[in-house]
Amino acid sequence: MDHSHSEKAMGTSEQAQERQQQQRRQWPSGRIRSGSYTPQRATADPEINRNAGRRLSNPYPRLSGEVRISRRKSLTYAEAGVPARRRSLAYADLMAVFYPPNTISQPTVTETPFESAQWEGVNDIQLDNLQIYESGVASWEPTLEKAINSIVSIKAQCVRSFDTETSGTYTATGFVVDAEAGLILSNRHVVNPAPIVAQAIFANYEEVELQPVYRDPVHDFGFFRFDPSRLRFMQPESIRLAPHKAKVGMEIRVVGNDAGEKLSILAGTLARLDRAAPEYGVGEYNDFNTFYLQAASGTSGGSSGSPVLDIYGDAVALNAGGSSRAASSFYLPLNRIVRALDLVRREQPVPRGTIQAEFEHLPYDELRRLGLDVSIETKMREAFPASQGMLAVRAVLPKGPADGSLRSGDIIVSINGQPVVDFVRFEDITDTNVGKDIQLSVWRGNKGYDVRIGVQDIEAITPHSYVEVGGGVVNEVSYQIARSYGIPAVGVYVASSGHVLSSASAWRGSVVESIGGTLTPNLERFAAAFSMLRDGSRVPIKYFSLEQPHKQKVSIMNVTTHWHAMRMANRDMRTGQWIFKNLEAPMQSPEELVPQTAYIGRLPSSLAPADKVWPSVVLLDFHCPYLIDGMKGTQFLGPGLIIDKDRGYIVCDRDTVPIGVGDVYITIAASVVLVGKVDFLHPVYNFAIVKYDPRQIGGTQVENARFHPDYLNGRQKLEQGDSIFIVGVSGDQSPVVRHTRVASRSMVSTKECLPPRFRCINVEGIKLNDQPSCQGGVLCDDDGLIKGLWTGVSSQDSNHKDTTTMTGFDVSILRQTIEALATTGEYPDVRSLDVELWTIRLAAARALGLDPKRIQQIEETGGENPRLLYVLGVLTSESPASKHLHTGDIILEKNGALVYNVNDLGVIHDDKSVELVVLRDGQEKTLKIPTTQLDGMETKRVVHWSGALVQEPYRAVHEQVRRLPSKVYVSCTLYGSPANCYGLRPGMWITEVEGHPVATVDDFISTLEGLKLDQVQQPDSGAKVESAQDIQTARYVRITVVNKSEVMRVLSLRVDNHYWPPWELVRDPNTPSGWRSIQHI
User: Fold this and answer.
1) Contacts of 10 (CB under 8 A, 6+ apart)
2) pLDDT at 324
């Protein structure tokens, strides 16, 4: 299986948390699943990736690291000593890897220990009608030619994280086992317990839709169904299941989608028939209570679900997993699959029973050490001469049917009076006694015991529903999860935390016990408890991590469900599709506010002057529901400063509030938590304005920040050597005070980020001699008058890893905003030249041809160390200023006055144009430069379509391209979505939809609405599509995309409005969050 996430978007902080949890798990080394799979949250540890988990093969290798392809050396026909044969049709047309045909029949070495009764009396002579003999000797060539037409490549999207699975895309293999009914056999981890959308591609490249009609709760197999009438150019035949034919020493071929190839054929020889089931890792899907077959065929990613064929074309096993450290491959026996196929073919339920106990097959020498009596061993050896051991209890789940009756180490002697030594007979008894009691005779120590245990329906502890809440997914604890961690199979499991649960650090792998004081033992109680909450409230949540189930955790959860729909999904057992039902969402907060008053205590004199600043300091907690505007994280924390307590305005840095879409929680005096919203993001300087309702704080004695008037007006600024106090906020929200001096002033340097996001430029920063460790704060004098801001500046290093540097800024950068809010209640008009500026020394300017008289003029008026400003780069080639200013221009004058201070050019207020004198190529030029008006919120609209978040290109995007291909920019794609599956990547522009040019987001939406994709008849509705062209029209939309290197591609994207309905998020200042969601379906 080949996965590429996430229902969650790429690179969230939730992913980082869960990636750390994944790394802490103990993975058994060297065993992997054969499916090619790209998980939503793959571990970052290369050693773990190399030696454990599923056998992974990314369909987009450039996104997941280097993929090395080596050629397996093989003998030619002449070297092999066999006659040369003509190339088969499959070899010539499909380029399959063929091995020299075997002309020697393999002798039977040993019998399988789990012979199925229904195969008794069947012998290989009865298979002669297959006509696969050539000159009286069996040959692989015609066998494989025939089998290839019945083997399919499967591509699928796991659209939601669920149970042990995470959202993503993958490829795998399956094969037709009933051509008339359209049944395809594959692995359970391919059919998947989670909601999926899958298609099968036959050898002639015909594609059909698949319905996951059955997946076994324990064993690694399942069935897809397709409509045989959809195949127009070939008629596949059923591959016969023959579990009785598996013999040690048998030569086999594994045919399937190996390592992402369309078709590969790998040779091997069965070496074991009684291998223990492979372990893929704690918290992952694992098979148990069955034998596995083993051979050295060296299967790899994508081969999950491949048939293991004998020379007569019968499937003797199902490929499931393999070792990454050796060529060993593991195959699931077909005994229980034959039974399930018969029931699925007749559209009957498949009874599966369990006593919630895991067994292991131990050899007699180990059983003797456990106390097995010699007389019992003698009788068992006589009754089952082919068996070399018996079943023993490995583990018993707490609160299960066997809890208190069986213990680890118990040896199973008989069930209902019938001796049992293998898994097949044991499961045959439990599956036929669902809801009944069975009597087990066990040997414990040196005594025998008889116990009666009720057989439970295994489907009762296999989840078939989930709830989407706050962008996350929860389902009931499954048998797989319970068995993996040794906990009872009850409770609500967090499959994906999303926006709401992550606020309480209830990450994937947590089990929720209560919300707001209401117990949540199952999914229905969880949904009911959540619906009783109020949107915008903060409630306690109790949960535990599966890694430490004995340690309960209590945290505070932010109830913010206005960003996402709250609904329940139930699996339709007939079609495999999940049907959604809207749930009652938490009520909106009432109009009348309940004021909360906090007491702000006085700080001790030893912390002066913090006592004069502290009543203005608050703590901000910001949460992003979507990864737009270049975000890679979802949670941010930092201090804020109240600048207008009467209107409720707070200033903070843009490392704390980086974008406008999100929830802001304001903590005052470490006692009162308010809900605010982002009101203004300065497009150039490193600050944002958050607004709250002052009525919320009641009589809390907060104060406006007191700024030093000379520093606020810009008449003075902090210089090197100045004495200053820093009052900061520590990690535990307590004050930090230090008396220090200014070390230096210099231009703030930030790098272009990947993905593009806001960066602070065109401003001077302040460094301190002895700066303390804190989250931010202010620079003030001993009277508490603020002279500067101490903030975090976000950027990236050369490896595109996020960095935050603490830097001071002059408070004068706030003056225009504070004055505009105080006088008009509106934000100021912010304009820019759309260039990045940097300083240049006079010596360098002289070398570039600056006139000596001009240098003398600058030296006389520019202070002790005068420097000039030059254009380091043009930020956007489409701005008016880009037609006049060039990189390298030295700016000498602005509107007739010499320019030394970057603040004079970094932001221009009100002026629609400025007159500049620049030095270019040794000549002074006078230019009239139009300025560009910048928006204080930048992004005001986000559109979701097929798992892609689309918006207009924001300012940071303009910086990194030569020109904009369109104004339809893909900011993020979600794991498991059509966008993620079909190659629509973040950082692309959509320029055409079905040949129609789309220049703006409005064009994009109107074009999609004109296609009426939501009215297209889906295949599972019963309507018959008459032509291949109709199928293509009903399924796919052609879009033309361009990346930032201006490379154009045409993608064919399958629209899925069932799991990925389109919606739109628009800016609305009248809502509590400042945003309003619009559903397009």
Assistant:
1) 627, 972, 973, 975, 986
2) 67
